Amino acid sequence: MNGEKKQIDSEVTLDRLLDLFSLPRQRVAVEVNKEVVPRRNWENVRVGDADQIEVIHFVGGG
């Protein structure tokens, strides 16, 4: 996840993955294998053994 290998339970959902790593749900996007997963699908998408997950945080500025 985000370039680091992490050990997780098999077939955990993206929604649960965010909980496991205490990641925020506001202003983030989640990619699985370089494809953005819509927030509405986080509860249904399961992470496999070889999947690459990126959690992208959006930061305001100006």
Note down, in words, how this protein is organized.
The protein is an alpha+beta fold and 62 residues long. The chain has one domain (14-57): Roll (Ubiquitin-like (UB roll)), CATH 3.10.20. Helices cover 11% and strands 21% of the residues. The protein has 1 helix and 3 strands. It has one helix at 14-20; strands at residues 28-32, 35-37, 53-57. Strands 2-1-3 form a 3-stranded antiparallel β-sheet, with no helix packed on it. The longest helix is centred in the N-terminal third of the chain and has 7 residues, at 14-20. It is globular.
What descriptors fit this protein?
single chain, 62 residues, alpha+beta, Ubiquitin-like (UB roll), three-stranded antiparallel beta sheet, 1 helix, 3 strands, 11% helix, 21% strand
Domain unit count: 1
The SSE order reads: HEEE
Number of helices: 1
Quote the distance from N terminus to C terminus: 29 Å
Q: How many individual β-strands?
A: 3
What proportion of the residues form beta strands (DSSP E)? 15-25%
Low-confidence sequence ranges = none
Overall CATH architecture: Roll
CATH fold-type name: Ubiquitin-like (UB roll)
Shape: globular
State the CATH superfamily name. Answer: Beta-grasp domain
Q: What is the C-level CATH assignment?
A: Alpha Beta
Give the structural class: alpha+beta
- Global Rg: 11 Å
Query: What portion of residues is helical?
Result: 10-25%
- What summary fits the major beta sheet? 3 strands, antiparallel
Mean pLDDT: 88
The largest beta-sheet arranges its strands as 2-1-3
